[in-house]
Amino acid sequence: MTTATRSDVGDLARSVTDPEMPMLTLEDLGVLRDVAVEDGGRVVLTITPTYSGCPAMATMRDDLVHVLHDAGHDRVEVRVRLHPAWSSDWITERGRQALRDHGLSAPGPAPRHDGPVPLTLLPVRRDLACPRCGSDAVALTSEFGPTACKAMYRCTSCAEPFEHVKEI
């Protein structure tokens, strides 16, 4: 068993990547909410899902536990915090750049939910640019991508398809 310090444990936890977007750490995605070491050495990590029912949560939890166990921390608990709900605003600038570097369009500002929320049956209009050529001449091809938190677009300038991480 290794003596846990918040700094050492935090460094380990911050190295874990998202299973669906491995160019992002859980910290850069904004999912890793808290790192604590309790009296007696128990490590407690707190994560928030990107959306309710996110299938990657179990893998994130297991990856966090494994990286800490491999470093000699035997007593690890991963807690899930649902409130406040995750927001794409929590993605760090380093995370947004990593998305762009890997050909994904980073989300813009998340919609505000204070007050009435307008409902629409039409696709959401997003102000975004192609991550490859930078053109804003893009067309939505599918509101749903390979994961529920992404939409599919095609650049009408360079003709490349790309994924956009949705604003949540």
From TrEMBL:
Residues 14-78 form the MIP18 family-like domain. Residues 122-166 form the PaaD zinc beta ribbon domain. Pfam families: FeS_assembly_P (PF01883), Zn_ribbon_PaaD (PF23451). It comes from the Bacteria. NCBIfam families: PA_CoA_Oxy4. This is Ring-1,2-phenylacetyl-CoA epoxidase subunit PaaD. It comes from Nocardioides aurantiacus.
